[in-house]
Amino acid sequence: MIHIIRNSIPNLFTLFNLFFGFLSVMYSAQGDYKNAAILILIGMMLDSMDGRIARILRVESELGKELDSLADIVTFGVAPAMMAYYSYFSTYGIVGMAISGLFPLFGAYRLARFNINAVKSSLKYFTGVPITAGGGVLTLLTLFHGKMPSIVLPIAFFVICFLMVSTVKIPSLKDVPLPKYGIIVTAFLGCAIYLFFKKEQYRFPYFLYVAIPLYIAFIWFQLVREKRKRNTR
Question: What's the pTM?
Answer without folding.
Answer: 0.80
